[in-house]
Every structure is written in C-alpha cells, then in structure tokens.
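Why should sequence recovery work at all? Because a backbone constrains its sequence more than one might expect. Tight turns favour small or flexible residues, buried strands favour hydrophobic ones, and helices have their own preferences. The token representation captures these environments compactly. In the example below, the structure is given first.
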C-alpha cells in the first residue's frame, strides 16, 4: 500500500467523466442521492441506486466512469453521500468521506492486490 500524501487528503477525488449521466442541481432535495462537487451538486440515484436500509430513500448508488467504478453511500439518511468508494481499472482503490464543513477528505487508498 502507498502512503497517503498530505496533499492528497483534500484534493479532487472525482474522475472528469464520473457525473456525465448524473443530474446536476442546486442542492439536495427530498428525492435522490446527492453528491457535493466543488460549487455544485449531482444526483447520482438515476442508475443503480438502492435503498439498503428499507427507509424508502435511495442510500447507495453505483456510478461508472471510463476508468473506474464508484459507489456512493448516504450513512445518515439526509440524502447526501457521506462516503465515496472508487475502484479504478488499474486495480487501485480510494475511499473518501464528506462533511459540509470540510468537503471530501481521503480516508484510505491502496491496491486491490
């Protein structure tokens, strides 16, 4: 496993084409699973979203980009993704956590091998 570089901890975690199929919006609504990206928001619940805890709201969504698979999860039922897992075609993974105060922060990364 590679050590986490301090400069990576708060860098941009998203591939450029990750939100091509997502719906852009002004912010979270009562429907969908929303991801904060820079100054904007994307609803990633359109394809591959599921309600894993049975509360009637999608809380987990899978998104495909050209070089990676991403899974977003809402852990506190507010409609905003709190965790982002990314698995790249080269066999590397990253896990990020989100808070409104600091944005996305790298939690872990490494190789799947």
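From this structural description, the recovered sequence reads:
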């Amino acid at each position: 496993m590679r050590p986490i570089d301090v400069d990576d901890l708060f860098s941009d975690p998203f591939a450029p084409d990750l939100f091509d199929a997502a719906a852009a919006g002004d912010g979270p609504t009562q429907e969908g699973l929303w991801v904060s990206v820079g100054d904007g928001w994307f609803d990633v619940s359109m394809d591959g979203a599921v309600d894993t805890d049975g509360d009637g709201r999608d809380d987990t969504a899978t998104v495909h980009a050209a070089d990676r698979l991403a899974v977003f999860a809402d852990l506190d039922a507010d409609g905003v993704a709190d965790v982002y897992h990314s698995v790249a075609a080269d066999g590397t993974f990253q896990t990020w956590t989100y808070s409104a105060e600091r944005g996305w922060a790298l939690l872990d990364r490494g190789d799947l091998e």
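A few observations help interpret the result. Residues 1-11 have pLDDT under 50 and may be disordered.
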